[in-house]
Amino acid sequence: MTGQRIVVTGATGNLGTAVVRALAADPAVGSIVGLERRPAAAPPPKTQYVPLDVTRDDLALTLRGADAVVHLAWLFQPTHRPDLTWQTNVRGSLRVFEAAAEAGVPTVVYASSVGAYSPGDGDRRVSEDWPTHGWPTAAYPREKAYVERCLDTFEREHPATRVVRLRPGFVFQRSAAPEQRRLFAGPFVPGSLVRPGFVPVVPDVPGLRFQVVHSDDLADAVRRCVSRPVRGAFNLATDDVVDPAFLARLLDARLVPVPPWLVRPALAAAWRLHLVPATPGLFDTVLRLPLLDTTRAKSELDWHPRHTAAETLGEFLAGLREGTGGGTPQLAGDDTRKSEISSGIGQRP
Fold first, then answer.
1. SS3 at position 143
2. pLDDT of amino acid 37
3. How many H-runs (helices) and E-runs (strands) does the chain carry?
4. What is the pTM of this model?
5. Number of domains in the chain
6. Per the domain annotation, does 113 fall within a domain?
């Protein structure tokens, strides 16, 4: 089979399934190797799943001969064991980068996050030169920021390798909604009731606003980064901003002012009791996220999101109501709470 050979880590999760779809539809891509700890049974066209764990397995042999590696694997759980998430997210990422250098892979595309950025400056939209030091009280931004520093070193030591960093807003697709509910809200949030008219109020928390991007739009950016000779970072998000008023309109609900100082202790108590997986530090992070300027992606990648924020969140809410995930263990399984409390092993996106 002719065409590019692309290796994708975390190939069966929210980002990975969309990226594999986009790459498989590209005539320039000849084959895709999806690396995942628990691969799905039936791979998409052009795709072969290989069961490899980025924290311990030999990666260089599989990466040898690849035209690009797209690194998406990331562990969100268990939030009560940040040592385990660090092992996968930081040490695992380092092992992927080191294996790519050893195998001579010419292109590395890494899925970073808006969470890697330092706190924003009000409603100012920041470009890719905004500092990436994260927010120190939560594991997710700490780990994303640390991997950015690791990539800085990697680029200096391997100048011939083309490194691309994608920094998306919150990423949603319909089939990933049940998984995301489990990862961030927990098993006690009734997704079937999250529909217009069934949610009476939306908390109006000052400072709560963020941007989203559909998984398919993010995947399209990955495909463009693989095929175009670009380097550096790209912000990816819809132009419209999601805030409590936006959510209230979407859900046909009423806004109720709620101060952050009231939310945080309630969330902290629920997290300590293992009732919700989202940490109070993650709540602090969301309140400090910058808004993203996506000019570079539009000009250099010719990238424009096909889905608006309302469409993206509408799909996500529909997925919550349906309660059926995609055709991979990561999207379809419902074992996050059991993993968090019992075995200490969470799900990889």
1. helix
2. 81
3. 14, 13
4. 0.89
5. 1
6. yes
